[in-house]
Write a structure and sequence with these properties.
39% helix; 24% strand; Rossmann fold; five-stranded antiparallel sheet; 9 helices; 2 domains; seven-stranded mixed sheet
């Protein structure tokens, strides 16, 4: 089942054992290969070895992706998968993928990955792909399993395909689980000049004074450049720039004079016709990026 108006089919497999996983994943991929579709398997190293053996000769026609370190932040994970899928779609008109979803032990981050699955529906809605996200039910917390049903129109569970009556519109879900940005009192305004270049130079000085490493400083400067360009082109210009420390991280807020936007998936949408790359790049380079209306204007808050 695909979301209305999209090329993507985004379903899930909740499995109880390796045998159950293989019994669903292998025929799913082989059917696609026989039909001339591309095939992608994303799993940990042991999972990839298991799939190579199970696929036999067809493994030579499959792209294998090690996800051992892929699930760090949703924006980076989306970007990594987008690169793999687009590369495959240069070779075949459609593709099938089985992606084993990883998550950490921190309950405070579980909503991030439910949000990731919701954003996936919009980010990749234009791709002619059938993606089966797999979840090992053993040890997977109930809130994450509930999120599976909320973010996939169909779920394979209890050895059968099930239409999910708990599936939510991606934007509605993202708004529901994303907390409103809290005010930060420890930030201070800095001069930002009259151009993006002057702003970048001032930010570089602030980062150096805060002893931020070279690689992280470059990431923030690139992200801030994208945000500032967006403010100049679409937000009526920059109103204020604030920087400082909060929760152990360097934070930069860029406030513009425009009306802003209300899109919970902003920065999670893969670039394509009508969707620019600026916010997509900024999200990948930072720990977190928030967009909200504040008393001084529409604000983009970048966490490094």
């Amino acid at each position: 089942m695909s979301s209305e108006g999209t090329a993507l089919r985004h379903n899930a497999l909740v499995y109880e054992s390796k045998d159950e996983y293989l019994a669903r994943a292998v025929p799913f991929l082989k059917a696609g290969i026989e039909a001339g579709e591309g095939a992608v398997v994303a799993h940990t190293k042991p999972g990839l070895a298991m799939m190579r053996e199970a696929l036999g000769p067809e493994a030579a026609r499959v792209t294998f992706v090690d996800v051992s370190a892929a699930y760090t932040r949703p924006a980076r994970t989306l970007a990594a998968y987008h690169e793999v899928y687009v590369e495959q779609l240069r070779k075949t008109p459609t593709l099938r993928a089985v992606a084993d979803v990883q998550f950490g032990p921190d309950p405070d981050e579980w909503n991030l990955w439910t949000g990731y699955e919701a954003a996936f529906n919009r980010s990749f809605g234009h791709l002619p792909a059938w993606v089966l996200c797999s979840y090992d039910a053993n040890g997977t917390p109930d809130p994450i399993i509930e999120g599976v049903w909320q973010t996939h129109p169909e779920v394979v569970a209890d050895d059968s395909w099930n239409s999910s009556d708990r599936y939510e519109d991606p934007d509605h879900l993202l708004r529901r689980i994303t907390p409103a940005p809290a005010p930060l009192t420890g930030l201070r305004p800095i001069p930002f000049g009259r151009s993006v270049e002057e702003l970048r130079e001032q930010l570089a000085r602030e980062l150096a004074a805060d002893k931020i490493g070279e690689a992280q400083s470059l990431d923030l400067l690139l992200a801030a450049t994208e945000i500032a360009n967006n403010a100049m082109q679409h937000g009526g210009g920059i109103q204020e720039v604030r920087v400082g420390r909060a929760r152990g991280r360097f934070v930069c807020e860029i406030v513009d004079r425009g009306d802003g936007f209300d899109d919970p998936a902003a920065g999670y949408l893969a670039p394509r016709a009508g969707v620019g790359a600026g916010l997509w790049v900024a999200r990948q380079l930072t720990w977190s990026t928030e967009f909200f209306h504040s008393p001084t204007g529409f604000t983009t808050r970048i966490w490094l």
